């Protein structure tokens, strides 16, 4: 069976794709309701799910004769072996991914959580919970898919662990809770299960409680665990995709328990917050996203941040595989596959945007900049152009050299020179730089 699913899949993709992406792909389990595969790391997992989810599904259906969902897990071990055919996929990008310790994602921390005014209060209370367990009990957070509930919950778990190394912090999804319970019933050892949750945890975090809708038996068990923990002052933190009121089939006594502590919703980030989240999501992959790219992503992908993350991962992988820059034109291409229609500022090459902004502020024309003139103003305008290409638009030195027709060493020299003035806040150059950037960003914001 395993061989057939894998070999069917192999026939459906090109050899290059197989070698690049599926070299660590293995079948782990075929269960009634799902098939589980494993890969080397989180990065490959995300990529396969985004890009090859449909093909994987089709291969499973072909062999099992019906549609069964699948899950990809990643192995808890060192870096994958990146064979020679995949060396284009920047090895460092793969290697840089942090490893999972425990069941918490090490990236889901408070410092990686971008806060806009819309979620400021929620963030403050969450931090307070990590410092004063038991103060708001339970702490119940609800909101739509991809708004950061799991991230926040795991940040609370990790922060509490570091604040109180002696306390036992338990983070699980309600699905895991149910599976553990079923397993313990099968093994005739429900007591062990109860002790695990009720006696051995000081702080219990339960993710996606709405999963228990319609599962009365588990709800009942959870109710007792909840009460026992709550009565002994242990902190409970719960999240859900909906308000407790809307948890159909949940007994009203359980719903009212959920509301007796601190009940807060998580809000959809507004575009300006999404802009910072986009930069942050890229930063986690050690990539610096140029401002104009972050803006176009933030303006076009709303709501679910998993989609924003998906677009960014796709962008990074494309730029890495095809050795192209992460710029507005690549972002536009990727966005099209995500949203169909997009709202991109009338496209003007970055260098032309700079030229026209410089002409407005310094009265130096594109023609003069492109000439060989050594006059002081023109040299400065030329150096500033290179600097902005690098710092604002994220271009690499090689590309700047190509676009401006200058030597590699000249570019490096210019970048250093301007960097020094700008960094030291040296009067005129810094002011000029700010003016030019001001014009560029207001132009792109106006569209
Ligand atoms: P939910 O559990 O609400 O469906 P997640 O916690 O899984 O959402 O968030 C989806 C993705 O968006 C994750 O990669 C998460 O790290 C990221 N994310 C969500 N909110 C923020 C935020 N405020 N700052 C940075 N990243 C965020
Ligand atoms: Mg979640």
From TrEMBL:
Q: What Gene Ontology cellular-component terms does the record carry?
A: cytoplasm; plasma membrane
Task: Extract the ranges annotated as region (Domain III, AAA+ region).
Answer: 103-319
* Region (Domain IV, binds dsDNA), start-end ranges: 320-447
Chromosomal replication initiator DnaA C-terminal domain sequence ranges: 350-418
What positions does the domain AAA+ ATPase occupy? 135-281
Keywords annotated in UniProt: ATP-binding, Cytoplasm, DNA replication, DNA-binding, Lipid-binding, Nucleotide-binding
Q: Which CDD domains match?
A: AAA, Bac_DnaA_C
Positions bound to ATP? 146, 148-150
Tagged with keyword rRNA-binding: no
GO molecular function, a single term = lipid binding
Q: Which InterPro entries does this one have? A: AAA+_ATPase, Chromosome_initiator_DnaA, Chromosome_initiator_DnaA-like, DnaA_C, DnaA_dom, DnaA_N_dom, DnaA_N_sf, P-loop_NTPase
The UniProt entry, under NCBIfam families, shows:
DnaA
* Protein name as it appears in the record: Chromosomal replication initiator protein DnaA
The encoding gene = dnaA
């Amino acid at each position: 069976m395993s061989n057939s699913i894998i070999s069917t899949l192999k026939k459906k993709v090109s050899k290059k794709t197989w070698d690049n992406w599926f070299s660590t792909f293995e079948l782990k389990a075929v269960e009634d309701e799902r098939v589980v595969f494993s890969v080397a790391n989180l990065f490959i997992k995300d990529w396969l799910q985004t890009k090859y989810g449909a093909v994987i599904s089709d291969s499973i259906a072909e062999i099992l004769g019906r549609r069964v969902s699948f899950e990809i897990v990643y192995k808890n071990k060192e870096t994958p072996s990146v064979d020679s055919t995949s060396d284009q996929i920047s090895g460092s990008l793969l290697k840089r991914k942090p490893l999972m310790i425990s069941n918490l994602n090490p990236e889901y921390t408070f410092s990686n959580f971008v806060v806009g005014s819309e979620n400021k209060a929620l963030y403050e209370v969450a931090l307070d919970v990590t410092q004063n367990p038991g103060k708001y009990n339970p702490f119940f957070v609800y909101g739509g898919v991809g708004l950061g509930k799991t991230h926040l919950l795991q940040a609370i778990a990790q922060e509490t662990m570091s604040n109180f190394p002696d306390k036992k912090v338990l983070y699980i999804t309600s699905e895991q809770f149910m599976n553990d319970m079923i397993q313990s019933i099968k093994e005739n050892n429900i007591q062990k299960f109860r002790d695990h949750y009720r006696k051995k945890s000081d702080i219990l975090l339960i993710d996606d409680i709405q999963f228990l809708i319609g599962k009365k038996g588990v709800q009942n068990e959870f109710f007792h665990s909840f009460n026992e923990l709550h009565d002994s002052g242990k902190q409970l933190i719960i999240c859900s995709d909906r308000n407790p009121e809307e948890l159909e089939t949940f007994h009203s006594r359980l719903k009212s328990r959920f509301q007796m502590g601190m009940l807060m919703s998580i809000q959809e980030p507004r575009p300006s917050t999404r802009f910072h989240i986009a930069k942050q999501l890229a930063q986690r992959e050690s990539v610096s996203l140029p401002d104009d790219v972050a803006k176009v992503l933030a303006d076009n992908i709303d709501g679910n941040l998993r989609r924003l993350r998906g677009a960014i991962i796709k962008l990074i992988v494309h730029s890495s595989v095809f050795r192209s820059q992460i710029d507005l034109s690549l972002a536009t291409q990727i966005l099209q596959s995500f949203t169909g229609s997009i709202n991109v500022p009338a496209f003007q090459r970055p260098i032309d945007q700079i030229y026209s902004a410089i002409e407005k502020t310094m009265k130096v024309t594109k023609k003069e900049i492109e000439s060989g003139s050594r006059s002081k103003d023109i040299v400065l305008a030329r150096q500033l152009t290179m600097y902005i290409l690098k710092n604002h638009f994220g271009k690499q030195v090689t590309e700047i050299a190509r676009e401006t027709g200058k030597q590699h060493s000249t570019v490096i020299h210019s970048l250093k020179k301007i960097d020094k003035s700008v960094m030291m806040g040296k009067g005129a150059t810094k002011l000029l730089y700010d003016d030019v950037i001001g014009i560029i960003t207001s132009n792109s914001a106006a569209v």
